[in-house]
Amino acid sequence: MLDADGTLTDGGIHVDGHGVETKRFHVRDGFGLRAWMRSGRELAVVTGRGERARRHRLADLGVQHVVTASGPKGAVLDQLLERVRIPADEAAAMGDELPDLPLLARV
Q1: Rg (alpha carbons) of the chain, rounded to whole number
Q2: By CB count within 10 A, which of 1, 26, 39, 107 is most buried?
Q3: Helical H segments across 1-107, by residue range
């Protein structure tokens, strides 16, 4: 389970003159995510934001579980683990901010 902003992006929020938000993703991260999924593992991305750039990139990569505007991430993690039938001690999480601490503590 991954956070998105600052974990899958450079952490910047780019807004153009029309209010359209864009993100910068690294191609090597996409390669790694696809390799993870091709190996038969589950992948979830959970974020408190939900702009189109991220949804488009994750759909292009084929990410199975995407939760946007998630609210408390610890509760989201518990729901995802139950849905995919993976015990917490066999899961991994990555994040970069205080809201991600419940994910890291749980796994």
Answers
A1: 14
A2: 1
A3: 27-38, 52-61, 73-84, 101-106
SS3 12: coil
Nearest Cα neighbor of 10 from 27, 28, 23 is: 23
Specify the pTM. 0.82
Structure tokens, 54: 């991220």
Tokens describing residue 85: 């039938």
Give the pLDDT of the chain (107 residues) as one tens digit per residue.
998 888 888 888 889 999 888 888 889 999 999 999 999 999 999 887 767 788 889 999 999 899 887 678 888 888 999 999 999 999 999 988 888 888 888 88
Parallel, antiparallel or unpaired: strands 65-67 and 44-46: parallel
